[in-house]
Design a protein that fits this description.
alpha/beta, 2 domains, 7-stranded mixed β-sheet, 5-stranded parallel β-sheet, 9 helices, 31% helix
Length: 313
């Protein structure tokens, strides 16, 4: 690897950052991330970054606002340290759900975050399975949105789960479900779902046949897991042989883990874009796959100015 590349990390997912560096065969660059007594972030870059191709790895996972500020301040510090190019590697892009005005007098927060990142001084973005493709249009810089599909498909094939049917949890998830179904040669089922309020879902219909099938509910993220639990129950009532949950970002806030434990789901397959605490890791139904190698390869290709999209052909 070219020694002009440096990889820095915030504190949100240090384990993933170290695994990415291990894949690339480089050392994680040195910085000091701390806080003043009132909670303000304080960051100091501890090595020369002048003229380097810099990658900052930071998921905007909970605590979301604190981690966003860490990322912004680190970008600013490296910009002022004369880095040649700064790529913000954001495995989980927070606020992605707020990507449009779905009712009067609400903000478009995903656009606001994009604006702030650009003002801070990043030159490009690398993220994983951003909830809405239209968020790419919020940036006036290159944005590589890589897919976790290769990691997921490898797991499904390794475990030889037969008679698979891919389930889109709503009409907005059909494109994601279709991409997975195409790659594993499976049919698609769509859930007719409505959200009367945030984090609340009501299931109306299961569109398609799941009888005697292993249904895989595929989504970009699982937050409270209420929707996942309700859909799994509806699928079992419609004759499914088994139900698996599949998401890239396991937010799992509140009592989500307990809901998964009590649900009809055989297994929730997620990735390490968001770190899992020890209590969540101990739940037998939750399987965490690593995307370190996938992100590492994407970083390598960006640095070497080669194609990132070829990873998914």
């Amino acid at each position: 690897m070219n020694n002009k590349m440096k990889i820095f990390s915030g504190t949100s997912n240090l384990k993933l950052s170290k695994m990415i560096c291990s894949y690339l065969g480089v050392e994680l660059s040195k910085s000091k991330v701390s806080s003043f007594s009132d909670g303000e972030c304080r960051i100091k870059i501890l090595e020369n970054a002048r003229g380097t191709d810099v990658f900052i790895i930071q998921s905007t996972a909970p605590p979301v606002n604190h981690n966003i500020m860490e990322l912004l301040i680190m970008i600013d510090a490296l910009k002022r340290a004369s880095a040649k190019r700064i790529t913000a590697v954001i495995p989980y892009y927070g606020y992605a759900r707020q990507d449009r005005k779905d009712s009067p007098r609400v903000p478009i927060t995903a656009k606001l975050v994009a604006n702030v990142l650009q003002v801070a001084g990043e030159d490009r973005i690398l993220s994983v399975d951003i909830q809405s493709q239209l968020i790419q249009g919020f940036f006036d810089c290159p944005l590589d949105n890589i897919l976790a599909l290769p990691v997921v498909i490898e797991y499904l094939e390794k475990n030889k789960i037969k008679d698979l049917t891919v389930v889109a949890p709503d009409t907005g998830g059909v494109e994601r479900a279709r991409e997975l179904a195409k790659r594993i040669d499976a049919d698609i089922v769509v859930i007719d779902k409505r959200r009367p309020e945030p984090n609340v879902a009501k299931i109306y219909n299961v569109i398609g046949d799941v009888k005697g099938k292993n249904a895989v509910i595929v989504d970009d993220m699982v937050d409270t897991a209420g929707t996942l639990a309700e859909i799994s129950q509806a699928l079992m009532e419609n004759g499914a042989k088994g139900v698996y949950g599949l998401c890239t970002h396991g937010v799992l806030s509140g009592d989500a883990v307990e809901k998964i434990r009590k649900s009809s789901i055989k297994e929730l397959i997620t990735t390490d874009t968001i770190p899992m605490d020890d209590n969540k890791n101990k739940v037998n139904k939750i399987k965490v796959l690593s995307i370190a190698e996938l992100l590492g390869e994407a970083i390598k290709r960006i640095h070497e100015e080669t194609s990132v999209s070829d990873l998914f052909v």
